[in-house]
Design goal:
With 293 residues, this protein is an alpha/beta fold. The chain has three domains: 4-69, Arc Repressor Mutant, subunit A (Orthogonal Bundle); 82-160 and 271-292, 3-Layer(aba) Sandwich (D-Maltodextrin-Binding Protein, domain 2), CATH 3.40.190.10; 161-269, 3-Layer(aba) Sandwich (D-Maltodextrin-Binding Protein, domain 2). The protein has twelve helices and eleven strands. Helix 9 links the parallel strand 7 and strand 8 (220-223). Helix 1 (4-15) packs across helix 3 (29-43), helix 1 crosses helix 4 and helix 2 (18-25) crosses helix 3.
């Protein structure tokens, strides 16, 4: 179990606030302050510096944070391993980004459960940043993600390729075109996108930068965190979106959405398994092999 003072320190570093850390940990603010004071006295260094209402970590604080987060992740993992060791039903937590969680994994999880009756796999769906953070701190045993990530910090294995495509309602004026130029969809003010932090948004923006476009100048009509809501908005001809081909497969086949080629650009990406070196390797290998087939 991680020391309570280190847990307080991690939360202050994450939230940048003594008050918010106290609320999250259900402690009084003086108790939070005392925890930091005790850590600084123990290590004989200054860990946190204040400038007005803003707080940041010293170099020593950054070093402690790195070690504390590793310790926290190992502590969580050890607790789960011990519980699984003595349990008939093994339980594992996986994180998935939205497209994968909604359109790739559900049927596969059902098939996996039918062939592995002694294993419970709990899926948690979040955006890319959240999934990676929870893998890092040991909350998730495995992640399946879309979008770019720091491959030096994680073990990973490719699941499959995917492509982002421009889609609109069949009655949209865009569907009358053979191809659409990028600057047209960026500038006419009807573009509906996922929220910042999502893998889809990151891939789209990174490709635009690569092509020399200034993403600050994008005229975004709406930012929506739900793929289902985005598809409904586009089907109602309230705008168009750039989205995973996998996510609109059924709608395109049913004729409620239409894919329009983008002139001179392909938005390719990968779906990847992501995990830490110290994860439950037997489960990870078994699950990845099952999903890849």
């Amino acid at each position: 179990m991680i020391d309570s003072k280190l847990k307080t320190f991690i939360n202050i570093a994450r939230l940048k606030s003594y008050t918010r850390a106290a609320e999250v940990l259900n402690l009084t603010q003086p108790a939070v302050t005392q925890h930091i004071k005790q850590l600084e006295e123990y290590y004989e260094v200054k860990l946190i510096k204040k400038k007005g209402r803003q707080i940041s970590l010293t170099e020593e604080g950054e070093l402690l944070l790195k070690s504390a987060k590793e310790y926290e992740a190992n502590s969580i993992l050890l607790e789960r391993k011990l519980k699984n060791k003595s349990s008939v039903i093994k339980r594992y937590n996986i994180g998935a980004t939205l497209t994968i969680g909604e359109f790739v994994l559900p049927n596969l999880l059902g098939d996996y459960k039918r062939t592995h009756s002694n294993i419970d796999v709990i899926m948690h769906v979040h955006n890319l940043e959240e999934v990676l953070e929870r893998i890092s701190n040991g909350e998730f045993d495995l992640g399946i993600v879309e979008g770019p990530f720091d491959k030096s910090k994680f073990n990973y294995k490719k699941l499959k390729d995917d492509e982002l495509v421009l889609v609109a309602a069949p009655i949209s004026s865009l569907t009358m075109r053979e191809k659409v130029r990028i600057n047209e969809i960026l500038n006419d003010g009807r573009l509906i996108l996922r929220e910042k932090g999502s893998g889809t948004r990151m891939i789209f923006e990174n490709k635009l930068k690569e092509l020399g476009y200034n993403i600050v100048d994008m005229k975004i009509y709406m930012e929506v965190g739900s793929i289902g809501a985005i598809k409904s908005l586009v089907e109602a001809n309230l705008g168009y979106t750039v989205i995973s081909r996998e996510a609109v497969k059924r709608e395109v086949e049913a004729g409620t959405l239409t894919i329009i080629p983008i002139d001179g650009a392909k938005f390719k990406r990968e779906f990847n398994f992501v995990f830490m070196e110290h994860g439950p390797f037997d489960f990870i290998e078994n699950f990845m092999s099952f999903v890849i087939g």
